[in-house]
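Changelog excerpt

This revision adds worked examples to the README so contributors can see how folded entries look when concatenated. The first example is reproduced verbatim below.
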Amino acid sequence: MTKPVTERDIVLGILMEVTEKGMYSHIVLREVLGKYQYLDKKERAFITRVTEGTLEHMIELDYILDRFSKVKVKKMKPVIRNILRSAVYQLKYMDTVPDSAVCNEAVKLAVKKGFGTLRGFVNGVLRSTARGLKDVVYPKETKARLSVQYSMPLCILELWMETYDPETIETMLADFQKEKPLTIRWSDKSRNPEEIFAAEGVTVQRHPYLPYACRISGYDYLGDLESFAKGYFSVQDISSMLVCEAAAPREGDYIIDVCAAPGGKSLHMAELLNGSGMVEARDLTQYKVDLIQENIDRTGLLNIRAVQQDALVFDADSVEKADIVVADLPCSGLGVLGKKTDLKYKATPEGAAQLAGLQREILENVRTYVKPGGTLIYSTCTINHAENQDNVHWFLEKYPEFSLTDIRERLCSELRADVEENGMIQLLPGIHQSDGFFLACMKRNCNDSNNK
């Protein structure tokens, strides 16, 4: 009996949503896997791998298809284009699937979707690709080669080449495509993570940068882990944890996190306060506030609250109230392309410039919440001078009551040499053991006051 909906049907549906409608792949994939939760682990794994792999390698797959198809990818019908892309991904990256099965299933899917007249075209392109795949030659020019080999848009490469040498860029690109364990922050000091995870059949390794950071793998679904449900740990990249280390909160501090969802840094700050003080975790929408609250409830922390507040809207009640303001702001996300692969296809120089402007607007607003002598910590998950170092220099020049704080001794020994101007650091995937991430720690002059 033929299944009414196959795994390849589902993959095609997700690809169409992402490539034709502009939806975010991680959101669509999560919703689809929820809808088809009756599928077994192997089928769900196939859907996830083919979807994510096709999107991650899309520029390369289109380059390959253009070598073997008389009709160029851009001129193909969207359904056929995505059937062929996912099929070529399987041919190139999934040795466990026979070439003949890939070709046959793609033809069946084209017919099923109403393109029976193109069955010969689909079959011919894929069989030619399967025969000639090993002989495909990539461009010789460095930028063009990197774009094709690592499926990175030229506009991003051009941006990075203004700052980094080709070897560094290629290291980052290769790291984006590596499969990595999940990084977590272990919170329960009374329990040993190795013992807890061993009992749950999860592989765990300590991260070298921080004693409470771990990398885990070998689990099926995070929500099924009792240790997660009981709040023993939170999902958080090491780079995000370093924000809290650099901020160096003290017991009793009042902290405002202005763009907090889903709450990783806010929860971390609350833990570092050892039950004292208060963290106000803010975000723009009720949906995001609910995400924060869900994590607060799971961890059981009492010195943190979730609040709906637009970071762009001035809050008079917060003026000079915060010992620390955390401004982890909306950005182009170029440091997390390994986790959100389709972001790179949405990136434009104009978009990055608009985001840099938005970041400045938010910084201008939330700086007023910092007490004299307090700390403003600015961070992004991107690799772009305009959104990072340039914004910090602009801010310090416009608001001389703030100055960079020396964070070198607050970071692990492996990172101290990479700290710029003593108070900021750009982490690079493949160079550092983290996502691509930027942070800057700025202190407000003790003698300064808005009430003067």
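The second example, added in the same revision:
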Amino acid sequence: MLKLAVLVSGGGTNLQAIIDSIDNGTISNAEISVVISNNPGAYALERAKNKGIDAVCISPKNYETRDQFHEALLEKLQSYAPDLVVLAGCLVVIPESIVEAFPNQIINIHPALIPSFCGTGCYGLKVHEKVLERGAKVTGATVHFVDGGTDTGPIILQKAVDVQEGDTPEILQRRVMEEAEWKIMPKAIDLIANGHVYVENGIAHIK
């Protein structure tokens, strides 16, 4: 059974998609051990509590330095000994110390088709704003392993979503969530949980 630690910052819609997928069998051989948020007001923590999942807040505001915050986050993660760390709408930049502690064991969902509209400063609604500003006709979402860079780790799954006339960033964000994010994140977790994903020469393969 693959043990998951899910890191969140906000409402937790991707977390809910994972919970629902475990419940309905779309994700097999996996369970969520803990949900951790940097934001004490994150509704994602309530979603976890409602399912009887450990819900923990580790806020940088409670530490004098960012390094101390990172140490506390790493210690909490290691105390649960997860097999996979899932960034599901997590706005914390994962430090090198955590990446090194969990090599190819951290996955992230990005709301665009990497390598487009990604990198430093491209997160949340800003991604969709840039897509519309550029006049792109297709966008989507990407699940990738996390490495030392920003959105540079091996790509596991991608799904395209059409941009439509009249889209606002908010409308596009919702469509990308519904048509891509909530589908490929659970699928990626299920593939990993059942031993179907491996990384070779910096590229993720599905067998």
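Reviewer comment on example two: Strands lie at 2-8, 30-37, 54-57, 84-87, 106-110, 138-145, 155-162, 197-200, 203-206. The chain has six helices and nine strands.
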